[in-house]
Write a structure and sequence with these properties.
InterPro entries: NTF2-like_dom_sf, SnoaL-like. The chain contains 3 helices and 6 strands, in the order H-H-E-E-H-E-E-E-E. It is of the alpha+beta class and 128 residues long. It is globular, with a radius of gyration of 15 Å.
């Protein structure tokens, strides 16, 4: 799983810098399940992975992810990260989270990501 972890982080950096989801889609198995913080953001397979990662990247203007810690097992890894940049609106943000990946050194079978959604809450204009 060490090789897949490196390939995953490299592919994510490509999404950040170039908006290129191709390398991440290539890592994804045909039956992989991808899930964001809640079950309303869940996709499957390569087509689902393309949608999952494009939807993720389209939230942001500039984006940079730094991986801060990882725990790698035989068939899964937990990757802690911090992302900074701007939202599409231009508002700066910083948020942290954990992504759990499952699979082997050839294909991802699962991706689950958990993050601090407070960075995405827009301020309401003067009303309570």
């Amino acid at each position: 799983m060490h090789s897949m972890t490196e390939r995953f982080t490299d592919a994510l950096h490509r999404i950040d810098s170039d908006r290129d989801v191709g390398p991440m889609v290539e890592l994804t198995g045909d039956d992989a399940e991808l899930v964001k913080l809640d079950e309303h953001h869940q996709t499957r397979g390569k087509d689902g992975a393309r949608t999952f990662w494009e939807d993720y990247r389209n939230v942001f203007g500039d984006l940079e992810t730094t991986f801060t810690h990882s725990v790698v097992g035989e068939d899964s890894a937990a990757l802690e990260w911090t992302s900074t940049g701007t939202l599409r609106s231009g508002k700066p943000f910083r948020y942290r989270g954990v992504t759990v990946i499952q699979g082997d050194d050839e294909r991802l079978t699962g991706v689950r990501t958990y993050y601090d959604s407070a960075a995405f809450i827009q301020e309401r204009g003067g009303t309570a």
